[in-house]
Amino acid sequence: MSTASLDRRPPARTPRPTAEPHADAGTGVRAEGLVVHRGGERALDGATCWLPAGAVTALVGGNGSGKSTLLEALAGLAPAAAGTIAGLPAARALVVQRTDAGDRLPLTGRQAVAMGLWGERGMLGRLGAAGRRRVEEALAQVGAEHLADRQLSAMSGGQRQRVLVAQGLVQRAPLLLLDEPGSAADDASRDRIDDALAAAAAEGAVVVVATHDRRSLARADRAVLLDHGLVVAEGAPEAVAAAQAARAAAALAPAAAEAQRGGAVEARTTSSGA
Ligand SMILES: Nc1ncnc2c1ncn2[C@@H]1O[C@H](COP(=O)(O)OP(=O)(O)OP(=O)(O)O)[C@@H](O)[C@H]1O
After folding, report:
1. Whose alpha carbon is nearest atom 7 of ligand 1?
2. Higher pLDDT, 73 or 262
3. Does residue 55 contact residue 10 with C-beta atoms inside 8 Å?
4. What is the atom index within ligand 1 of the atom nearest the CA of 5?
């Protein structure tokens, strides 16, 4: 999770890139005007977005824009000072960023995935045949069968990440939230994770994934762009990617103009001194 401080310039409010006439009519989760405070700042500053069931929604935006905070608010871990979340199912699975996970826990990959079933069977409950099958299936979904007996502490970053994604998948929760699940994974592993998320969505889940990865964004069904705790665009991934690029270019424009002015002054100084 980022602790980068927010630049408090107010973000420009741009129109949403795609109009989705049925966005509010479908099933799913709707956040409305969410405000969440963190470290004395408004990490979410009135965020409103729709997260449909049966689809993968990519959360995008720069460092500190509020993606993790929105995931945590949806998971019920970050209390909202204002706003509402409608359509939240009782069962939710959150896959945290790799750096947040207890990498030193004395657990094998299989045990870590089985932890995902604690909610159903209790910490001390026995894992029946069906549970064991689900654990193996979840490991296989992310190509981590060979990590089943390896200690988490002896895994690479990308391997551990895949096991954590399997821990989220095994729960088969109707709301699956993932914070940069493929950030340490290689391309093939990231593709497998994206395949698994698409499969969860095809089963009807609301799948929300924070990502900085363009390929994962392109593979999502829709996207939500956050800036300074506000949703500034949502809709089709390509439209949201275009909106993000336009905002980045607009933010760089004053600096580029300043650099150009500086260059002109320098050129004049150089020529007058020659
Ligand atoms: N544990 C924390 N304590 C205090 N402030 C926090 C904490 N975590 C996040 N914040 C602040 O909340 C704001 C939103 O952070 P958040 O982690 O949600 O952003 P993000 O979009 O997920 O960023 P990144 O892409 O870097 O992961 C930032 O201003 C950040 O400084």
Report:
1. 3
2. 73
3. no
4. 31
